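Re: the 387-residue chain
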Amino acid sequence: MALTMTRWIGGASAVCALLALNAIGREPTPRTQPEVPADSLRLRDLQRRVGEASLRWEALVRRDAVLAQIASARSADRAGPAIIVDPLLPATHRSILERAIQRQWSSLGIDSARVPVTVAVIVDTAVSIDRLSAGRGQISHDYVVPRSDAGTTGESCVAIIGLQSRTIVRPGTERALAAAVALPRAAASLVGPCGFVGRFGSPGEGIDRWLRARGYRFAAHPQWWTLPPTNADLGTRWQLANAGAPHASSTLALSPQGRGCAAGHAELCAGALGASDSAGAGELLMMLRARDEHWGSMSGRYFADLATALGPERFETFWRSDLPPDAALRAVASTSLDLWTHQWAVGLVGAQRDGPGVSLAEWIKSLTLAGLSLGIAAWGWSRRQVR
């Protein structure tokens, strides 16, 4: 039987179909992980805990020194943050940091702080293995967020910026320092949660308790903007605020729970906002460079994006509520926290599919590619038949 063109294409299509069916029906072979001895696991846990304790001790020493300095030189001016810069820092470096802090403060639209804010810059370049292993980086960010109504007591919200690398504090390293604080996320960290406290006042008991259990990492980057007046619901307002194309590359940072939340599973959204045992909890909030296990680097903008979607008035009501975040959000926007988290994730990374599957666009692309490949093969075959 001659191998005609029609039979050749039909045979190739049948083989491709059989290979596809075989791959779909086959169960994936589970990968076996080598067992780690229990003693090794306990040793790793002990090393982690000792490292965190060492870092926290260093941060507490810096905090006590800063608080003592603030107590002796308290300023009543609330038009901007009080800035304390380590005298060991060269004048050019001090100017770079002061301008960066003032720019970030101005971007938040704070004419007069509801709670006084102090930003203290400390040079601390002592070599520490714990810092390297915990990933604090060239610049550390620690915060003291007041629990009470600090607007009447005069208590300050304090941001403590630690310069921990000689490559950004020595004379002649001005460009390196400017680059380190130039990125939007790095600039926002110069005031951190104190940006929310300065703009909206002290958080309510329910909001503060929820944030402290998570090291305040969901309020780490205050970067909000004002939308035009509209009666649209929260999800629609967020779509308007984030009208640009979703950042597809951010999906690589999503955990299975985060991806499931973006796909519409509300019960997974709650888990993706869960508490952690990081060094950020407690009276001193330590922001480590470790990425959030569910959202990567996106978690720091969570509350800032909510402030954008709600608007300043409604967000202030939410922020100062004594209710937990879910109940507080239902009260101001008739929306659950899980639904908002889903809408927030979709606005940043796009709607996600639930589990393995092929979209219509992917089917069309695959069929087009297959047809093009068969067409090229047929053309080549016909060329070979010409004598």
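Strands lie at 82-85, 117-123, 139-144, 157-163, 285-287.
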